[in-house]
Amino acid sequence: MLCSTFAVVLVVALGTALVGAFPREALKKTCSLSKYRFPAPSELVAVQKMKEQFEDTMLLTDRKCSTRLFHRRWTTAELTVPDRVILVEAELDFVIAVLGQPTAHKLAETHQQALAFLTQAREDLQGCVAAEAPSHQPSGKLRHWLQKLETAKKTESAGCLEGSAILYLFQVLNDLRCAAQRQHCT
Question: Which of 19, 37, 35, 38 is nearest to 27 (CA)?
Fold first, then answer.
């Protein structure tokens, strides 16, 4: 009896020590991007509607950009998996920041569903960076593009940035799909 009581106390003490050794937040952080391999059709329709509505109004304005922000000499598939996640997180940060303040009020309603989807994807990507590659250093290709993005944010007009964000939404979604496919992206 004494031996079994001792065993129970030992198991409880070890269990408590193990639970305390791993903070609850650390146990919850996982990277699951599988739902972005094939986004729900309703999400894609919302993004398409926003893009089409913007293109209709864009033709009426003068939006000339000096930076070809989304034109790259490399593909997302060429990047490592951590670089892909960082790339898409940066793209989504940019798109959400720009589209969060639509210049045309009639676009605001169309933006809501698409922005909610993009915001959720960015949050999921941030969880992946925190869980899988908190100290990852981006490759030279990616660092150069991130620098180009930061320069464009400071030098380009709001109209140019909005145009770039919307016109390349589907490229961003393809990049998200590639990040979600992990090593299987080609």
Answer: 19
